[in-house]
Design goal:
Helix content is about 55%, strand content about 15%. With about 210 residues, it is an alpha/beta fold.
């Protein structure tokens, strides 16, 4: 059966950090600029996405240690939700993929995201179920080809029977390097071009096997 990997941020859900940081600041009492400088610019989010702090509890404890911002899981989720907006056409594409094969989320994100996805995007989880692969669990981030090899291994799938979509050209190139069929979800004037995604899925499904 065909396998479909979908990125999450800016592919299934739009993401805007400008809405997230103020919410974290209000919840913690720490300046959003300090949070951004110490955590994100300090490289800690990338480390978290690569597998450090493998539980939400550990992530939030490290977040507080580095930034001084003490937040609960619920506050983290609320801030993340403010920054995330579903892309209806992409959700429809995910649903279509699940109807003709196995659909899975493949995302660069930390453990707190992995544990929170059912809260942040219940519509996505309703479609993919437990088929959710997050870089923190794989121990490596896209676009490293190893991510895709590990993901294929989870499903015992062949690259030629696998489709991957992402808004990042670098991530798309990483998937293509191991032989996976790919689609780059491009934005035009800030709008994701989901018609091209739907067409790419249909071409992939209709290919000669």
């Amino acid at each position: 059966m065909d396998l479909f990997f979908f990125d999450f941020d800016k592919t299934l859900y739009a993401y805007d950090s400008r809405k997230r940081l103020p919410a974290l600041s209000i919840a913690s009492g720490v300046s959003q600029y300090h949070i951004a400088k110490t955590w994100w610019q300090g490289g800690f989010e990338i480390r978290a996405e690569s597998g450090e702090w493998p539980t939400a509890v550990e992530y939030l404890a490290e977040f507080e240690r580095i930034t001084g911002a003490a937040i609960t899981l619920e506050q983290w989720q609320q801030a993340r939700a403010l920054a995330s907006t579903r892309i209806a056409g992409s959700i429809d594409a995910l649903r279509r993929a699940a109807s003709i094969g196995t659909a899975c989320v493949l995302s660069n994100n930390p453990s707190v995201f992995a544990e929170s996805l059912p809260v942040l995007a219940p519509d996505v989880v309703a479609i993919v179920g437990d088929n959710r692969l997050v870089s923190c669990e794989l121990g490596v981030r896209k676009p490293d080809p190893q991510v895709f090899e590990l993901a294929l291994g989870r499903f015992n799938a062949r690259p030629k029977d696998t489709f991957f979509v992402d808004d990042s050209a670098a991530n798309v190139a990483g998937a293509a390097s191991v032989g996976i069929h790919t689609h780059h979800l491009v934005y035009l004037n800030g709008v994701p071009q989901v018609d091209g995604l739907h067409a790419a899925i249909e071409r992939f499904a209709a290919r000669k096997k």
